[in-house]
């Protein structure tokens, strides 16, 4: 990597991490007030409606991913006309998508009662739903411009804006919950901050990249448009697959188990969301650099960087998933009490699926940068079929409850993503898939050792729950997991590269 590419990646990572840590603390504060002022029922609504609009967002088809992929080369070549033309196509399509989501969202209004179970009738249910719909629709009219910051490796700009917006949103929402206990006002603030956050990003892009105004009416050529549409068809299948595998989990729990149980589960999802977002943001901050790398470097260089990024991602994921398993229930007890706990078996499955999901970050990023949209199409068709059949089997036949939903997700992941996504990258880099299984085997062994030692020290040797013991558990997680990984990989190129990046991070942070 060129020094500018490395520095951009580090800068993006620093800002992404800082923003997400702050957002985590603010979300925790808001959710704590939320639980004590509104209760479990509204927690269930949060999870349910968020997933409904994740599914409706499928109408985006993957156009954004395909267009961003198409931008890397013209950006590297300084072809402003083509970059502007691609962004104009993006803008037109997203406005159409926003309108379609509004129509589809409104069409679901008569069926809301069928998606909610185990709670009392709430008169304002439809108003709450419409506010969630508004929040989802508004974003499509501005958010497309953030893609320019990604392809120019300037994601740290949007991180700064998000930091300010999240702070303002959190403070106002806490005040509303404490003073009025009003969920409607709470959601109105969400809508306003989504709008202003996207507006500020849009205004910055217009100011920074003024050539976009010069080519405001530029059109994409027929060949480019044809290639994008071919990729979109494949990406759309991927989006459907992802929605079925992830977004429908909450729907299954709400419909077949209980919306109240979904509310308990959503507390853990908040923690998962924090871990997922921080880890993914740190890796996603490299997206622009990886796209530039593939556009200008040799395949040998690409594979070398891939292995290094994969190792960094593994380290983050191993630490995050093991720490979640150890710390989740002690934290829930101290935070909101034992009545909000889920069983250890459920926590283990959540942690396992967290690891399986996040370890894919590197593969997803490189496959997108390589443009492997069509190649992933068959896998994306098979994965949700396996997931849905397995989940319903475990829920309806074996009566496994939430564990059945989570186990269905794991089964679909291990039989498809676990081997096929790496296969495409190793094939592209002209490396045998045996090398992948060799590397992943060592990663799994490291996880077993680190996880086993941490569990023995934190759950068997330490009994009781207090904030002091909780912080002792945190220290043990930090020491045992990281020292185990260092012991296993201290002599590798990937480890030394990571240490070099850490030094650069410390230097740039001063």
List the helices and strands and how they pair.
Layout: H1 3-38, H2 40-56, H3 63-77, H4 80-107, H5 112-115, H6 125-139, H7 146-151, H8 155-180, H9 183-208, H10 211-214, H11 222-257, H12 259-284, H13 287-296, H14 299-335, H15 344-358, H16 361-370, H17 377-397, H18 402-415, H19 417-428, H20 433-460, H21 467-489, H22 493-509
Which consecutive residue ranges, at least 5 long each, have pLDDT under 50?
none
Distance between the termini: 23 Å
Give the DSSP E fraction (strand runs of 2 or more residues).
under 5%
**How many structurally independent domains?**
2
Element string (H = helix, E = strand):
HHHHHHHHHHHHHHHHHHHHHH
Range of helix content: over 70%
Q: Kindly state the mean pLDDT as a whole number? A: 82
Number of helices: 22
By DSSP, the count of extended strands is 0
SSE class: mainly alpha
Protein name: Sugar translocase
Main location: membrane
Transmembrane segments: 12-36, 48-72, 93-115, 127-143, 163-180, 186-207, 251-275, 311-334, 340-359, 385-411, 440-458, 470-489
Membrane topology: Multi-pass membrane protein
């Amino acid at each position: 990597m060129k020094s500018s590419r490395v520095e951009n990646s580090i800068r993006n990572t620093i800002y992404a991490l800082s923003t997400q840590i702050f957002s985590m603390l603010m979300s925790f504060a808001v959710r704590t007030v939320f639980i004590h002022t509104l209760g479990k029922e509204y927690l269930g609504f949060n999870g349910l409606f968020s997933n409904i609009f994740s599914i409706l967002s499928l109408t985006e088809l993957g156009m954004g991913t395909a267009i961003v992929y198409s931008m890397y080369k013209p950006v590297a070549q300084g072809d402003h006309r083509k970059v502007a033309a691609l962004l104009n196509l993006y803008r037109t399509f997203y406005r159409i998508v926003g309108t379609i989501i509004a129509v589809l969202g409104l069409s679901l209004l008569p069926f809301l009662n069928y998606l909610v179970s185990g709670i009392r009738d709430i008169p304002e249910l439809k108003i709450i739903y419409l506010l969630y719909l508004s929040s989802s629709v508004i974003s499509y009219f501005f958010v497309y411009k953030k893609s320019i910051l990604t392809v120019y490796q300037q994601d740290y700009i949007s991180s700064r804006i998000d930091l300010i917006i999240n702070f303002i949103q959190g403070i106002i929402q806490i005040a509303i919950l404490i003073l009025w206990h009003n969920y409607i006002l709470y959601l109105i603030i969400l809508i306003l901050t989504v709008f202003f956050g996207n507006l500020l990003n849009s205004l910055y892009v217009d100011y920074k990249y003024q050539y976009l105004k010069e080519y405001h009416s530029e059109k994409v050529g027929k060949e480019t448009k044809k290639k994008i549409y071919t990729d979109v068809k494949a990406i759309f299948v991927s989006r459907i697959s992802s929605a079925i595998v992830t977004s429908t989990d909450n729907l299954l729990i709400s419909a077949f188990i209980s919306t109240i149980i979904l509310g308990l589960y959503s507390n853990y999802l908040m923690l998962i969301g924090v871990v997922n977002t921080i880890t993914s943001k740190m890796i996603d901050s490299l997206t622009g650099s990886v796209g530039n790398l593939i556009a200008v470097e040799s395949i040998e260089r690409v594979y070398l960087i891939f292995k290094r990024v994969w190792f960094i991602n593994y380290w983050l994921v191993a630490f995050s998933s093991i720490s979640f398993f150890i710390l989740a229930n002690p934290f829930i007890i101290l935070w909101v009490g034992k009545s909000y706990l889920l069983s250890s078996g459920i926590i283990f499955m959540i942690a396992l699926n967290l690891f399986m999901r996040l370890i894919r970050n590197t593969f997803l990023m490189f496959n997108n940068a390589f443009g492997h949209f069509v190649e992933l199409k068959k896998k994306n068709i098979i994965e949700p079929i396996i997931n849905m059949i397995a989940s319903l089997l475990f829920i309806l036949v074996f009566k496994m409850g939430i564990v059945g939903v989570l186990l269905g997700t794991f089964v679909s992941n291990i039989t498809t993503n676990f081997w096929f996504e790496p296969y495409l990258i190793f094939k592209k880099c002209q490396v045998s898939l045996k090398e992948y299984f060799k590397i992943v085997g060592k990663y799994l062994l490291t996880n077993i050792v680190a996880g086993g030692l941490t569990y023995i020290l934190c759950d068997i040797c330490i009994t009781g729950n207090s904030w002091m013991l909780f912080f002792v558990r945190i220290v043990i997680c930090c020491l045992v997991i990281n020292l185990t990984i260092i012991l296993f990989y201290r002599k590798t190129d990937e480890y030394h590269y990571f240490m070099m990046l850490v030094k650069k991070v410390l230097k740039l942070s001063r």
